[in-house]
Design goal:
By secondary structure, the chain is mainly α. It has one domain. Helices cover about 70% and strands about 0% of the residues. The protein has 6 helices and no strands.
Length: about 150
């Protein structure tokens, strides 16, 4: 129960931060990507702020023997840069550039009951389902080819 409450509070703070910084507005993303026109660097400052908070969090985590609400830390173990990572990153970037939202702001935007974020969210969920199915099919076909 405590873990869910912490997750809820964290999500609300994250969503509030996105709303206050204007990052729920896809126009901000388009203006950030428009480096030859009316470029708006505010997204870079939001990203930089996120990186600073993350870096401080990692410094704190590294000094602790164990987490507060779990038995072990769940940090990424892989440093492999492989084809799925590159393809997924490219799809994420293209989707972000075309839609003006990434998953966090898209979910936070649902609170404003506008149709565009809802359409984006449905497409996001569809993409997640399709990618899961594709991964299953590829894993299954790869294992059947090896047998």
């Amino acid at each position: 129960m405590a873990l869910r409450l912490i997750a809820l509070i964290t999500g609300l703070v994250f969503g509030l931060g996105l709303a206050l910084s204007g990052m729920l507005n896809p126009t901000k993303v388009f203006q950030f990507l428009n480096i030859t026109g009316a470029w708006d660097p505010s997204l870079a400052f939001v990203m930089g702020g996120g990186l600073i908070v993350n870096a401080i969090g990692h410094l704190i985590i590294r000094r602790r023997a164990s987490p507060l609400i779990s038995e072990t830390f769940h940090l990424p173990q892989s440093t492999l840069i492989d084809r799925p990572l590159i393809i997924g990153s490219a799809i994420f970037g293209v989707g972000w550039a075309l839609g003006g939202l990434c998953p966090g702001p898209a979910i936070a935007s649902l609170a404003f009951t506008e149709p565009e974020p809802l359409i984006f969210f449905v497409a996001l969920c569809g993409g997640l389902l399709l990618s899961g199915r594709a991964k299953l099919l590829l894993t299954h076909s790869k294992s059947s080819m090896e047998a």
